[in-house]
Structure formats: C-alpha cells, structure tokens
Amino acid sequence: MSLLKKMSFLLFASLLIVSCSSDSDDDTGGGSTITISNLDFSVDASGSGNIVSVLPTADGATSYSVDFGTDATDDVIATVGPAVSYTYPPVSASYDITVTASAAGADDVTKTTTVNVVVEQSDLVGQWVLLHEARALWVGETMEVYAAGGQWWANSLSDLKSRACFFDDIYEFKDDMSFHNILGDATWQEVGWDAVAEEGCGDALAPFDGTATATWSHNTEDGTITIDGMGAFLGISRVANGVELKDPANAKESLTYSGAVISDDKNQLTVHIQMGAGFWQFKFARVGSAGAQLPTTDVDGDGVLDIDDDCPDVAGEAANGCPVVATPDTAPAAPTRDQSEVSSIYSDSYTAPEAFDAYPNWGQETQFAAIDIDGNNILGYSQLNYQGNAFSGVDLTGKTMIHMDIYSGDISALKVVLINTQADGGTFETGLDASLENGAWTSVDISLSDFAGFVESGGNLDQIKYEVGTDATATGDKSFFIDNIYVY
C-alpha cells in the first residue's frame, strides 16, 4: 500500500522564509518594485513512499527551484509552476526540502521544510525460490492463452527433479534494498545462450553468477518490481525487457517486472516480463513455505507421487504412473521411393537429417517412447495433448508432398502442423487434419500446397506439431504411432 496518506511532515519550530533583501518587502535595496510573497509548497508521496512530488506557489514568482535536500547532484529541479518529483533512496529518512521562488527584477525568496520520508516495508523482503509446481515457469503469447491452459513452453512436475539445480536458486530481497541471486554450486544452463552447447546443470555464466551488486524497488501502485544491477535477475537470466539475450555481454543494467502480485498469505509471488511477441510469467514461493518444497500429492491415486508420475492426472499401471498403451503388432510397409526423390525427416529407409528431436521440451503432457517392431524403429506418443518433432531445416524446393505413416487405435484424425521457425517476419505455422483408420497403419500423403501459405513462407520446414484433429472422435488414451516422415 502506498504511503501517500501515511507520510508525515515535520515542520520545525520555524519554517525559514528568507528574503535576500535587508529592507522591507517593497524595498529590495536594488531599486526593484517587484516583490515575491506568500511562498508555499505542497508535498505528496507515491510508490512505496519514496517518490516525492513538490508543487510550489507564490505571488509574483515566475519560476521555482526545488532542492530535495540529498547529497546527490540530481536533486535540484527547476519548474515554472507544475509539480516536480524526485525519487529518494528506498529507505526511511528525513530531508530538508528547499523551494526558491524567482522573478525578473525581484529578490529570490526561499522556504525550507523538513520532511520525513517513510518507506513502506515491502512484502517482498525475504528469500524466494521458484514455486515447486508445474507451470511455475510459463512462456506464451497472451494471458488468455495461459488461462486456457496453453503455452509455448512451461515446466512440468518432472522438471522439479530434472532441473533441481534451478529450482533451488534463491532470489533474495533484503530490507536494506539490496538484491542477491544465490545460485549454489550449479544452475540450469539453456542452449538459448550461444556459449551453451547442451542444456543442463552447470556453472552460471558471468555476470549472471550471483556476483552482481544490485538493488530492488517495488512500486505497489503499478505492480512493478525493478532490479538494478547488471547480472541480477528474476526467473530466467536471459529474459530481459523486450528481448531474450543470446550473449551474456549484452546483460542489462536494469530489469522491470510487471504484474507483480503477492498472495494473501505472503508466501507466493507472481511476475511477468515482456519479450518480443510474447511474455514470460514466473511464480515464486517464499523459502520455508509449502510451495518451496517438492509436492507429496498423488492426485490420480495410482500410488505414484505426482512428482514421479509422468501422467499425474490419469491413473496408470505402468511404473511411471501412466496407462499401458498397446503398440501396433506390425510396422508399416517400407517406403519404395528412391532416396534421390526424398528429403527424409524420420525413417529407417532413408538418410536421416543431421539433427532430429523426437520429443522436444515444449511443455507438453504427451508421453513418448521409441519402439522397435521387428527391427523397424517407430515413434510412439500417448496421453496426447500436443506433441512435436524438431529437426534440421528441410528445403522444400522442388518438393510437392509430405508423407507419413500413422497408426492409432483411438483417434480418427490427427492434426498435422508444419512450422518454419526461419520464416520472414518470424515463425510461420499452418496445419490440417489427416484422417486415420483406427487399428491399422494409415499411409498419409498431403500436398504441401494444402498447408495454406506454408510454401510461400520461405520453403523451409524445421518443426512438425501434432494434435488431436479438430473434428476427431477420440476414446481412451489418445495415442498414436508414426513412422516414415518425409517430403518428396
């Protein structure tokens, strides 16, 4: 809460109203007949109580100088009448504010008032870690997408263990207004940094290694938290206002997080930060609170704790807590097209792309298994909400069709989305449904021209996403198996 109403102003026994003339008000000693009288000023506080505004008034004055009374060199501000503001250090203290009224041909008149700046103790003070829940880290396009359960990426429950070196990082707000990142022996490093070849636990990159000298401020009126100090951050170090950093050398001196909300029990904190077309949301838990501990719940009651359950919302018989999915009895027929006609994405029959990721970490709930059927490798996906493959870019020049063999026992259509992350103007994606025959391999061939606008986006394909078809009927587990993905 702002201390606009709480701030107290102590007038010393004498408010110094000083005229530079040694004579009467209408005799300046310099022959001037212009006088300044009735100098006064109001003082208001905002923010956490340390943003102070002064509004001067006087008869006969045409300009004013306001000295906010600190040792800094930026605390003297001129005005011709409108209020001027100064942001004091975010600590409670007393200051002598002096206003000087001026006019051409008149002696200056000054007035000094001693003011107590009382800074509200923020609920941020203390140590925080990332909330130990799924979606504590979330990135997407809009809050509406978040509310609907969608995202570009979000952490899963299993990430609490696989990224334990990240979820134990401490973000400390001290009552002297200093801020500290306490990272321990290791933290999570993402391949988004140019210097990181493989994501995983490792040494923090300077200046994001906890050595930053930083301060913090919390504006409760507009819901912002500002961290000042190169290398200090909340959540993810490479996320800055408007951009995602690739090189630590481009670290920012200051970061402002919006949408700051502290829970009623003061144990959870939520903040946002904009980056390009979307934004990140981070949720934190106060150290020592329940949200800072690994959960011990078993929502689906299958005897596997949610933290260890790959399918925490669906009871299953498998050791990972998921239902057992029946795999096809046979592999699809081997493709017969010549290698020279084909750009392969996934198939034992053709030369593989330089890189292929069957299960990129997009925050999906879908489960993945690589399956061998009589020496033929296929991809198996179950508990489908959405899924994707990421791979080296495939040039579609001269190619007109995309092929894939798909098997499902419980969905009648699979939505296939083609994605070009290198498209002019940013990532381009478009999709359509592939109809399936349940309980059998369906050989799917789709014209690239049917994917509206995709070829025009630049002709490069480097990701495919799968979802349950728009008009599909679905029963049971919503699983599918896929093989022989190529363009020709």
List keywords for this structure.
Lipocalin; single chain; 488 residues; mainly beta; 3 domains; 8-stranded antiparallel beta barrel; 6-stranded antiparallel sheet; Immunoglobulin-like; Jelly Rolls; 3 helices; disordered N terminus; elongated
Residues in helix, %: under 10%
What percentage of the residues does DSSP assign to strands (E)?
35-45%
Total beta-strand segments:
33
Q: In CATH's first tier, which class of the largest domain applies?
A: Mainly Beta
Q: Helix tally?
A: 3
Structural class: mainly beta
Residue stretches low in confidence (pLDDT < 50, at least 5 long) are 1-30
- How are strands sequenced across the largest beta sheet? 9-12-13-16-17-20-21-22
Mean pLDDT: 89
Number of domains: 3
How far is it from the N-terminal to the C-terminal residue, by CA?
Answer: 64 Å
What does this 3D model show about the protein?
β29 (413-420) and β30 (428-435) form a beta hairpin. The strands form seven sheets. An eight-stranded antiparallel beta barrel has the order 9-12-13-16-17-20-21-22. Strands 23, 25, 26, 28, 31 and 33 form a six-stranded antiparallel β-sheet that branches. It has a five-stranded antiparallel β-sheet with strand order 1-8-7-4-5, with no helix packed on it. The chain is built from three helices and 33 strands. Mean pLDDT is 89; it is low at 1-30. It has three domains: 16-117, Immunoglobulins (Immunoglobulin-like, Sandwich); 126-292, Beta Barrel (Lipocalin), CATH 2.40.128; 326-487, Sandwich (Jelly Rolls). It has 488 residues and is mainly beta.
